[in-house]
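The material for today's practical consists of a large collection of protein records. There is nothing in a record beyond a sequence line and a structure line. Backbone structure tokens are a discrete shorthand for how the chain folds in space. Nothing more is needed to start thinking about how sequence determines fold. As an example, a complete record with its sequence and its structure tokens follows.
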Amino acid sequence: MKRIFTLIFCLLFLQVVKAGSFSAPPSADLSLKIVPLLEAPFDFNPGDDRDTVILPIVNQAAPLTGEFNIFKKRLDSIKKDVPLDYNEYVQSYIEIYAHNREEMGRVLGLTKYYFPIYEKAFKDAGIPDELKYLSIVESKLDPYAVSRVGATGPWQFMFTTARLYGLNMDDYVDDRRDPIQATYAAAAYLKDAYQEFGDWLLAIASYNCGKSNVEHAIDKAGASDFWSIRQYLPAETRGYVPAYIAVTYLMNYYSQHNIIPQACDYALKTDTVLVNKYVSLAAVAQVLNIDVRALAMLNPSYKRQIINGTAALPRRLVIPQVDKSKFGVLYDALNNSNLEAAAPVAMHVSYAEKKTENNHLYHKVRRGETLSGIADLYGIEVQDLKAWNHLHGKATVGQILKLRDTGDEPEKEATPKHNHNYITYIVKRGDTLSGIASKFDGASVEKIKSLNGLKKGALQPGMTIKISKG
């Protein structure tokens, strides 16, 4: 009897040990939770006309344990001016990007060409060098990236914002694709946003969702740091800042995750030529004996692969460094072009024209449209669009939206009052400095702040500000 009892006891004990050996620690659940998200953000190919990457939304990341301290230490070691906070959301995006080794290896190869351009632009603007990593989150350094709402280029500019920051778009050229011009515009935007919010993570957040959304999140949270206002931001923006921190981490510690930089397809040594005639990229490629596709990669802003230079406005041509003996034939090709100069046809009316000559009263929401995209299309503010239509969330497909205030009472506070050398403007709820500047020719955030003695760009509804006439 004792032997039978002992045998039963041993069998039960073995079952308990066996069951315990298959239980996983809580931290092991992290990879399980994010693996299903991995397919979404990395199916975009260079030059593809599909939508750009949409970041997966990580709202319930697994809790961190002591084993993750190494990531915090590494982030602390590379932190400069931009805070690189570490938490479960950042860790989730580190795992997502690190899982896609081939994709990140390709991006690392492209940084050899793009980052020197970015670094010079940011140095000239006086903003932190590490903001260059934001372009990876935006487009994975693809100048041909186009989002479902029309954001274009390596820095994903919408049309009206691009106009506001000096980029040109017409039938021949789209400066949003130009890595040089678009980067200077991105630097100017980020600098304006930082001067307005005084916080780099908030400036980064505003690059994704707009300054007005950040301001409203600050009002709701009663705080002025990203992690405190995160829950009040659009869903995509909640993941945008953690994704930026994760990309910054991997660009510095890629070797720790077995990511191997791939070769860059671009010519890393280049020369720049100013062209004052209409010349095809094919003609230049022929005389230089290079593939026209390689030349187009260096000059992605030319939509027709035609350099539309004039004597009054010469255009930049970037070419791989070639032997000096080829300069003669290149000179002949540039000066003996048979292409006739034709006036570029504007793709859209200018930003200022949209603001003053928009005769549309209503817009019917189509599938895939967002409030920010609709507001950008008509040159109006998102918050105005929401107020006119009493919206507290998203618009629904088929909904008819008012594009202006059609009430009986005129909006007196929005009417500029003229004076000698400046215009006075009464601030509305939801106004931002950049939004106000965009409404007046020659105005800029810096000019408004200087004229009114604004240090941090803080605006209060009802306050009167001066705007220089020119």
